[in-house]
User: Fold this.
Amino acid sequence: MGQKPNQKLLPGNLLLSAPFLNDENFVRSVILLCEHEDQGSFGFVINKPSILNLGDLVKELNFLDCEVFVGGPVEQNTLHFIYSGPQVVPGSKALAKDIWWGGDFSVLVQLLKSNQLDVTQVRFFIGYSGWGEGQLDSELSEETWVVYSGMTSFSVFENSSDQIWKQLMKGMGGEFEIQANYPIDPRLN
Assistant:
């Protein structure tokens, strides 16, 4: 499941931070890759809950109990979403089987208000993670990230956000399984 030499990154891949990555924005993070183009890459950290609830940001949905995640350090004044199930939001883009990114936000609001889409099928993010031209490829060659290509709706929507990094690393076996148990700061071991 890890990155193979010359493996092309695809939307829907998960990027797992290396065990000793000490960038506070990405420690033990799992990023859902949404775009990887020549001019740059874009995704959301799926395991970093914010202190906000959806109702704090979208008054029309203040009746929903829905945590919002920190998608990354870029443009944290923006709200993004992914959802699972069939494509029900016009303009959304497929990331994997039954996982969609973005689309017409007003339609999403109406689907949530009318219970045609359950809030457990949606994940909201403030901000995003972005890389300029060649930056992500460079970070991959420096082994900053491990690529996990077996993403499912379970790994995104149903895993505990504080355990998903460790579970995915263990699931890849070999050296990754060992790395899953490394302490965040080896000096404290």
